[in-house]
């Protein structure tokens, strides 16, 4: 199975995880970059008003891939708004995909993430992993948005997360 990995990351954590997954899978990797400056106000506005922000690249080509593996944060219970731009561009040609997130988790799990992905893409995801920094790395600290968003994954953390993802959804990547 040919997998393509696509990531967006505000803090760099999801990009680190995506790079590790792409390397492990020997998969092509596309990093989405936000064209504008990201602020908490802009994040909230994009999410509330369902805006599609300007990103680079503006789309990804699924041709030749059997599975798209999206890796990125969850904001306000939904995939980060830059994914909305990618999903909109792919909607008529969306192929099987999975979504993996390492996000703060200060507000808890995101039970509607899978349904939100299906609504945005027009297709049910093959797998969804909602990994949370608050549960994985801040066990002795009361999680809040400040300490979870400030956390930077170590190389050891990335290896642990990559292994967790491969174990959980690894069957999707087998030929």
Widest sheet, order of strands: 2-1-5-8-9
The biggest beta sheet reads: 5 strands, parallel
In sequence order, what are the helices and strands, one letter per element?
EHEEHEEEEHEHEHHH
Helix content: 25-40%
Could you give the distance between the termini?
4 Å
Instruction: Report strand %.
Output: 15-25%
DSSP helical segment count = 7
Structural class: alpha/beta
Query: Which radius of gyration do the C-alpha atoms yield?
Result: 15 Å
* Chain-averaged pLDDT: 84
Number of strands: 9
Give the uncertain stretches in residue-range form.
none
Q: What is the general shape?
A: globular
Overview of the structural elements:
The structure is a single chain. This protein is an alpha/beta fold and 175 residues long. The strands form three sheets. It has a five-stranded parallel sheet with strand order 2-1-5-8-9, sandwiched between helices. The longest helix has 15 residues.
The gist of it:
The chain has 175 residues and is of the alpha/beta class.
Key traits:
alpha/beta; 38% helix; 7 helices; 5-stranded parallel sheet; single chain; 175 residues
Task: Set down the secondary structure blueprint.
Layout: E1 3-7, H1 13-25, E2 29-31, E3 33-34, H2 40-48, E4 55-56, E5 67-71, E6 74-75, E7 78-79, H3 81-90, E8 97-103, H4 113-121, E9 127-132, H5 133-136, H6 145-150, H7 155-169
Parallel strand pairs: 1-2, 1-5, 5-8, 8-9
Antiparallel strand pairs: 3-4, 6-7
Helix pairs in contact: 1-7
